[in-house]
Structure formats: structure tokens, C-alpha cells
Amino acid sequence: MNPIELRGIQQPQSIEIRPRSVEIRPERPETSFSDMLTRAIGSVDGAMKTSEQNVENFIAGKTDNVHDVMLSLQKAQTSFQLMVEIRNKAIETYQEISRMQI
């Protein structure tokens, strides 16, 4: 005797046919675009100042961890390059919009 019994196709027990409605509410931005840019620029500035402080500490002999110094320098450089590229894209977009004929 086989413990598995095969049955024919059966009707599903409970299927919800109508879709559930989902209400989407747009969130009100708590900060403006200029505030977001100010925070981003401040973050880049903070990374630059941190890396400068780490280099000064290394030169003064307060730390001997070259790894942390190099990581902070690379982080500052990468964040600065990203900020410059975002600025370049924003300028390109502005120029493209200003060339559009209305």
C-alpha cells in the first residue's frame, strides 16, 4: 500500500477574487531641497575636515594607524568627487532646460 493518495483536481478552498485597495498618500517633505543640499555639502565638508585631522594626528605622531588615515582620505576624496559630479549634472540639466523652446 502506498501512503500517498493521489486525488483528482480539487476546487481551491478560498481565493480572494477582488484585489485589495491600497491607499497611497504622498509624504510631505519635511525638509526642502536647499536643506538637503546644505546637509550633503556639510557632510562632505565634515569628511574633509576629519581626514585633515587624521593626517595631522599621524604627522604629529598621535596615531600610527596608517590604514585609518588612508581610509578617511579616500572617503573624503570620493565624497568630494561625487559632489562635483552631481554639481556638473545639475549644471548640464539647467543648461538643457534653458535651451528648450517654450
In short:
This protein has 2 helices and no strands. The chain is mainly alpha-helical and 102 residues long.
Would you kindly provide a written description of the structure presented here, covering whatever features stand out?
- The chain is 61% helix and 0% strand.
- The chain has 2 helices and no strands.
- It has 102 residues and is mainly α.
- α1 runs antiparallel to α2 (66-99).
- The relative contact order is 0.07.
- The protein has a domain at 33-99.
- The termini are far apart.
- It is flat and about 80 Å long.
Helices, strands, pairings?
Blueprint: H1 33-60, H2 66-99
Helix pairs in contact: 1-2
Structural class, judged by helices and strands?
mainly alpha
Q: Give the overall average pLDDT.
A: 84
Q: Count up the helices.
A: 2
- Rg for CA atoms: 29 Å
Spell out the key features of this protein:
2 helices; 102 residues; mainly alpha
